[in-house]
Amino acid sequence: PLFFTHYSYMGYDPHFITDKYTKTFIKECRKLNAPSVVEISQKNARGTTLRKLQVAGVVANSILSEGEQRAISLADFLTEVQINPTNKGVFFDDPVTSQDHHRREKIAERLVELALQKQVIVFTHDIAFFIRLKITADTTATPYSVTTIRNIGGNPGIISPSLPWTAQPVKQRIGTLRDRLVQLMKIEQSGNEDEYLFAAKSWYGLLREGWERAVEERLFKGVVERFSLGVQTQKLKKVVITDELIDYIEIGMTESSSWIHDAAAGLNPTPPDTTKAESDLKFLENFAAKCIPA
Length: 294
Description:
By secondary structure, the protein is an alpha+beta fold.
């Protein structure tokens, strides 16, 4: 047997429940690209339905991969959500574990689709899947909110409205860099040269990553995104590349890159002060603004 699920449907015809379940379940399997090889058997007693899903009488893990089993389980859960009218909100905990990229895409699309009917809450450690959900929601104009739960200094459950750096779009990255610049100023004021050098190199490394994301998101309008399965060719119509924008990129990338590599000892370079860092951040901000069409 693959798994068991127990229901109580007082006042419902068990045959109707079986027919409705079967049709909905097959539909969900197709949407999730899950193998439709599950047979359904049912026992009824005093208004209670015990549903048993099995693969032709054979132990599931001898024929199906872990990802296929999980996809079928998710299809069953989504079927239950639709059949039971009392389900107003649903929770998912890392629903793409053991799934390939194609099925992850299908699951993201299905959860966003479900969010138009019910409140959907997804917990995930998977940044790529999170961004896939976000892109799908943005594409379909589905409203959503994001909360980050972190473990900071051994203290779990720290709530933050900001996304992890890896998932932040350009606007948020500029905000994060601005916040970190305040910390950099405090280190500068302490007079500890080595500590400031380490902090400045780290800050400029993040600034470079901000430029890289800006080229992807602002200059090329998200035509090619790191976590997307394809090239969004329609966005090419919005891409405008000018000599001015290219100059911005060359200057900005050069300034940020100069401090993330190891310099020759004989040069004894002096790291830029925070006034220079603030100016370089403003330069990135100006570039991002110029890339937005009027």
